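If you are new to this repository, start here. Below is one unmodified record pulled from the training split, so you can see the exact layout before writing a loader.
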Amino acid sequence: MKQVNLLTDSPRRLFFHYLGPTIGSSMVTSIYILADTIMVGQGVGDAGLAALTIFMPIVASFFALGLLLGVGGGVLMSVAKGSGNESLAHKYFSTAMISAAVVSVCFAVFGAIFFDPMMYALGADTTNIELVRGYGLCYTVSAPLFIFSSSLQSFIRNDKSPRHAMIAVLTGSGLNILLDYLFIFVFKMGMFGASFATSIGTSITVCILVIHFFTKKNTMRFSFRFFSIKALWEIAKCGFSSFLIECANAVLVFVFNHTLLKYIGSVGVTVYSIMSNVAVVCMSLFNGVTLAAQPIIATNHGADNHKRVLQVRHIGTITSSVIAVIIFCVGFFFPDLLIYSYVKGPTPEILELARYALRIYFFAYLFMNFN
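And here is the target side for that same chain:
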């Protein structure tokens, strides 16, 4: 099979070569969260859904750290390769991987030790802490899996293997959905079952991603001697915008949870859990477009091919705008489809509030794609 050339092949052909696998990977990553939410909503009920939403900021923080190191390091690696500096490319990759290992282990250890105080700060109380703990403790201990899954996908896509990243995520996600069903509905493991299924699925994803480094397509080299504080600072600066967006989502969920619990109660949190989880899927479509353009733009930027950079950005903007209109139409005209997907037998109060909220919220998608 002919290897793509990011510097000479048609920008349109390159973009759509990457688009399918990147949207697939991004969508399937969101399905990890989506599958847990739907299975918990159907198997545990409204209380489980509310508990899951309380833990959501931690999920977002893992994804944010993965993007900080994966997107930041991946972009700089591609720029270095575009300029012909292979040694610098290896330095960015090695620095990002070492940093991901250190940060994720610290997160897992300290998160497990201080889990309950952290959850109470996020909005848990004595009525739901057991449900939150049942899901969140296993998820927190598995932090290295989630952070490496997110960061490795970005590097492998930048190494011209978007399909490998997609296959890894598809396999892990499929296993996650199967285990979710078995653990929640067959073995009656409740919230812990959902979290354990996600951890197993993600571990399979990481294992398949690692296989890339033993293939002929791999051009990345890892060594501890490549680690550099200066490179880490550059990676952090480059990936900070992606990190900040995910952190903003985590803060948003935190603020909404507290406000809704205060003024509306658990029904409000349940409705917001529907909105926030739909948002994860919708934003993954926009992220897929961005990730399809990113390796092409970064490599051509490194080679000073600025005309090709603008062409790819233009194609990406049009594509994301079309997706935005489709998303808006689904949410505005068919809100019940989304509500019944998440909640088994929703009460009239949940139905009325969710329809109203979803229709207002989906107007935002007409503009989110540009961000």
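Two things worth knowing about this chain: The first helix runs from residue 11 to 43. The two ends are 35 Å apart (CA to CA).
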